Amino acid sequence: MPTLTEKRRFDSLEQETFLNLWRTYDKLKEIEEAMFGRVDLSAQQYNTLRLLRAAYPTPMPTLSLGARLISRAPDMTRLLDKLEGRGLIQRTRREDNRRVVDVSLTQAGLDLLSDLDEPVRECHLQQLGHLEQHELEALTQLLKKVRAPHENHDNLSIADE
Asked: Which of 57, 80, 114, 120 is the most buried (most CB within 10 A)?
């Protein structure tokens, strides 16, 4: 019987792995938040703008946009309200179906994304640039494997396509 000092710090290897993922996310998120904070933007708002730029000039329906985000947006309307209030996006209701709201980038949104391109690349280098290419590729494949049984395969995020 192990003594108290010999007892594992974790209940299982799965718990240790999960807590290490969580801690890693938290440390990497600090770097990201500092960079986006300089332009008063959240990572989720940036991701929304980035998805809209990928579709530009075609608008994206709100439901499709929300489904493609990297992390869930519990209040998509509020997130879009903030971006629209800053003039970064515009929303329009479809004439043929008033329940569908299309979202598109404005020129100000495109300009902000352009201004952020280099700082975002630098942020990712600061977060993960110390890893070698083969390590990044292996880590990416492992993370996809971890997520796979929990994904909605009919509606994958850009990270899983």
From this structure: 80
